[in-house]
Amino acid sequence: MTEPRLDGLISLRKVKGDFAVPFNHRAVGDNFLITNDLGDLTFVTPGELQKLAYGDIAKDEPLYARLADKNFIAAELDIPAQAERWRRKNQFLFYGPTLHAFVLTGRCNFGCQYCHSSIVGMHRTDTDMSIEVAERAVDMAFQSTSPGITIEFQGGEPMANWEVLQHIVEYARQKNALVGKSLTFSLVSNLSLMTEEKLDYLLERRIQICTSIDGPKDLHNKHRIYRDADGFDTTTGWMKRINERYVEMGLDTNLYRVEALPTVTRAMLSRPQDLVDTYVELGCRAIFLRKLDPFGFAARTAKTLGYSMEQFIHFYIEAVDYIIELNKQGVQVMERNAAIMLSKMIADYEPNYLDLRSPGGAVIGQLGYHPDGRIYSSDEGRMVGAMGDEAFCIGTLDNTYQELMTAASTRALVIAGTNLGQPDCVSCTYRPYCGQQPEYNYKTQGTIGGRMRDSTWCRKHKYIFDYLAKKLHDADADDLAMFDRWTTNRPQEHFLQEAGAI
Ligand code: SF4
Fold it and tell me: Would the CB of 441 count as within 6 Å of ligand 1?
């Protein structure tokens, strides 16, 4: 099938500039997808697109009502209602960073081949965050003007610095008894240092637990090397145990499960179904298909583990097609990139995923706290720092919150992270749903602004958006019901610290 083209379809002389709101278009099948700045989308035939551009649609035509309903007809726009809608979806602009990634230690007992975190051996206790730094980092996080903050424990393996982890939780809860923010904690761990006693504490303190599973056992153990035991059995054993405990606690198992994330390596490219099956067998409801990123050790091992963006996309499409097939058989599982993008495209909901919003999350959405008190634009910025480049270190705990938020580097990152400042994004049909990560641009193209025309970041997102647009274009009622399920947002309120709790 040949894609429809605008050549010969639209004569600029005949365009009626004030009839439609500004919109962008992209061929999907034999129709066009059009989107506006408010985030609405619809599909039109070439003839309908011409009529919209020429302002040649009578008010009593069904097409007029359809396009007006989607806010494409300027005269029908309810501006106060749309301003309110814009405010709701961009509320992250009205307050400071929500995510505070605490790197509790550089130590780790796993030797993952692609590790992003530039880890050190377990004897290097000198890389641990101290109690003093931890308290000052909590103090800084609480200065965020955001009504809700998440403190995320990262590493290395954060459970290696267990006492400081506990101290942070207790200290932050005490502070919050006075401040009253929506406070959550999250732990990113390989789970190998877990014990029943530690699990009791994590569950009692309502700390969300996330881990990494890289597909079936053979692949997982090949890339995530653990010398003390079988790494796959260790991690999945604890996943099952934690999920059992959630059941014992009476939590809704549809909502409360250990989250796991895979990192896609070259060896996994030919086994998308094995990966999905492993996640389903482990009881996971979501898979976040993440390409190897350019940070930390991953950059050095790219020659053996890496692959092209086209290979990743081929893998991605096979995996998501399979996930969709499983859904049709009644299995509840979804892919996270797709869910985030579809939330924006069809659910009119901004999930505030920091890498896919504009401006991006660098500094104004997240901060990364190094064990020695340095503060980075994000966890990725901290990984760039671990490779000897301090470009994303925006200050230290000796700075004030105001100094960090108004630093020249912060302002530069916000500008670089804004799609409206990117030449290609400005006219991109997917701009209302897309975002930027200046750290990625810097690592791959040497400039925080990046050049989207030859950016793998852009290519990845455009491919996935195209894939989803085609799925939406061809969707039947069952497909739409499935996408609705994927985009239904149910907050995990159990993980909120109780107001006034100490
Ligand atoms: S990064 Fe690429 S896909 Fe995203 S808005 Fe910009 S041009 Fe479009």
Answer: no
Question: For position 225, what pLDDT does the model report?
Answer: 82
User: Tokens 């996994």 correspond to what residue?
Assistant: 268
Cα 277 from Cα 6, distance rounded (Å): 43
Q: Residue with the nearest Cα to atom 6 of ligand 1? A: 425
> Among candidates 154, 179, 202, which has minimal Cα distance to 366?
154
Segment 57-82, tens digit of pLDDT: 999 999 999 999 999 999 999 999 99
Q: Which amino acid is at 64?
A: Y
CATH class of 90-502: alpha beta
Question: Where are the domains positioned within the chain?
Answer: 12-89, 90-502
Centre of ligand 1 to C-alpha 467, Å, is 14
Q: What whole-number distance in Å separates Cα of residue 301 and Cα of residue 115?
A: 9
Sort 284 into a burial class: Cβ within 10 Å, 0-12 / 13-18 / 19+.
buried
Query: How many Å apart are CA 288 and CA 309, to the nearest integer?
Result: 16
- Output the pLDDT for position 155: 85
**Would you say the CB of residue 191 lies under 6 angstroms from ligand 1?**
no
0.85 surpassed by pTM:
yes
Token pair recorded at residue 276: 């999905």
Residue 502 confidence (pLDDT): 60
Per-residue three-class SS string for 241-257: HHHHHHHHCCCCCCCCC
Strands 374-376 and 393-396: antiparallel
Q: What is the pLDDT of residue 113?
A: 77
Q: Candidates 355, 434, 441, 445: which one to mutate for ligand 1, based on the most atoms within 8 Å of Cβ? A: 434
pLDDT recorded at residue 117: 54
All residue ranges of the chain with pLDDT < 70 are 1-3, 116-118, 296-300, 499-502
**DSSP-assigned letters across all residues of 149-171:** EEEEEESS-GGGGHHHHHHHHHH
